[in-house]
Write a structure and sequence with these properties.
The complex is a heterodimer.
Chain A: E1 5-7, E2 10-13, E3 19-24, E4 31-37, E5 44-50, E6 53-57, E7 64-68, E8 74-78, E9 87-94, E10 105-106, E11 110-114
Parallel strand pairs in A: 2-11
Antiparallel strand pairs in A: 1-3, 3-8, 4-5, 4-9, 5-6, 7-8, 9-10, 9-11
Chain B: E1 3-5, E2 10-14, E3 19-21, E4 24-26, E5 33-39, E6 46-52, E7 60-61, E8 64-69, E9 74-79, E10 88-94, E11 98-99, E12 103-108
Parallel strand pairs in B: 2-12
Antiparallel strand pairs in B: 1-4, 3-9, 5-6, 5-10, 7-8, 8-9, 10-11, 10-12
The chains are: A mainly beta, B mainly beta.
């Protein structure tokens, strides 16, 4: 158990809908990262937050947004969902925000299925 | 932008033997960390080993070791005495945010 929690574990929804994925980082970690992993693909970095502020942005679509709250939990919002958004969404957390050393601890992921 | 390349989509090894997974990366930075993560069928991402770029000594964690060639920007993972439980996807990562496409390792009994 990494100490990172993600809810829900599974989510099934329809095209055009909007969903919210939630992540709670390890105790003491200030930085949260979101990744998307499509079937049998590598991890695509979406976005990073540190202590409530956006720190780095990756391949995140405009239909997607995220935020980190004062209690450090984070939410990833996916809207106008398309079939291609079906994937495993990982949240990870780390102590250090952006130094060269940023070992991340991964949550179990949320599996999103868009029908 | 930093890129990470894993040129072996699939690898196979006999139980108890040794296998090496390759990874190359591109960066202009001099100080960074590299990571290997394992993703078993449960899909959980598990850190296997990390390497600090300013350290010349290759990292080792039990049966897992790396061959880090900074000038060549190469970071390969060696698994010795392979076990059935080593079967998984293995991802190389640069600074933990840039991941390679992964290598699927099969271990044959």
């Amino acid at each position: 158990d990494s100490g990172v929690t993600q809810t829900p574990k599974h989510l099934i929804t329809a095209t055009g809908q909007r969903v919210t994925l939630r992540c709670s980082p390890r105790s003491g970690d200030l930085s949260v990262y979101w990744y998307q992993q499509s079937l049998d693909q590598g991890l695509q970095f979406l976005i990073q937050y540190y202590n409530g502020e956006e720190r780095a942005k990756g391949n995140i679509l405009e239909r997607f947004s995220a935020q980190q709250f004062p209690d450090l939990h984070s939410e990833l919002n996916l809207s106008s969902l398309e079939l291609g958004d079906s994937a495993l969404y990982f949240c990870a957390s780390s102590v250090f925000p952006g130094s060269s050393y940023n070992e991340q601890f991964f949550g179990p992921g949320t599996r999103l299925t868009v029908l | 932008a930093q890129t990470v390349t894993q040129s072996q989509p699939e690898m196979s090894v006999q139980e108890a033997e040794t296998v090496t997974l390759s990874c190359t990366y591109d960066t202009s930075e001099s100080d960074y960390y590299l990571f290997w993560y394992k993703q078993p069928p449960s899909r959980q991402m598990i850190l296997v080993i990390r390497q600090e770029a300013y350290k010349q000594q290759n990292a080792t964690e039990n049966r897992f070791s790396v061959n880090f060639q900074k000038a060549a920007k190469s970071f390969s993972l060696k698994i010795s005495d392979s076990q059935l439980g080593d079967a998984a996807m293995y991802f190389c990562a640069y600074r933990g945010m840039r991941f390679g496409a992964g290598t699927r390792l099969t271990v044959k009994p």
